[in-house]
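A further point concerns the way the authors explain their paired sequence and structure data. Each protein is reduced to its one-letter sequence and a matching series of backbone shape codes. An entry of this sort, consisting of the sequence and the corresponding backbone structure tokens, reads as follows:
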Amino acid sequence: MARAKLCGITNLDDARLCADAGAWALGMIFWPNTERRCEVEEAERIGSELRRQVELTGVFVNAELDEVAEIADVCNLSMIQLHGDEGPAYCAEIARRTGAKIAKVVRAKDKASIRALMAYRDRVDFHMVDAYHPDAPGGTGETFSWELLGELRHSTHPLILSGGLTPENVAEAIATAHPFAVDTASGTEAEPGRKDPAKVTAFMRAVERATQAEAA
């Protein structure tokens, strides 16, 4: 059954909305150069209220180890998503310091970029693939060729699929890639950093229907 991770959460109201809709994980971005940045104080409120309901995920891009560990502690993060150039040793150290699950992201530029995830297989809990864009580490709203994910066919790690997923295309993505979870930010927003309740509901329904179709 594909799960849904709703990313770009910036406030407690949206966090509640997504949790109530059945999200498996909520993503809070702590990279400063994005409109979807979640302030640590707000993330603390979200973590305090929802820590037993969802996977509270902190999204980081080439952050200092101490910064990640501190934010994970104060915000009750149960999962860390590493979206930059972090190597296997960095991932292992973050796991050791925080006790959180680790998702390492690569951007699907080509087959080689996806195969690079295999270097992390002993250091992370999830493999995550996002669309490639030369000027942004993620959150572009662009898709990529899901057939490229065949490069991970020998991986035993759960796959989280990201990159331009919407209520309209997520069923096709699930049918093609068979991911453990699907991730969306822009596809469920009214504007960057603000969720649209109707889009959230539509996305969750589309994921549920696609999962039922796979099980049939």
Observations:
- The mean pLDDT is 93.
- Strands lie at 3-7, 25-29, 55-60, 79-82, 101-108, 126-131, 159-161, 181-184, 189-191, 194-195.
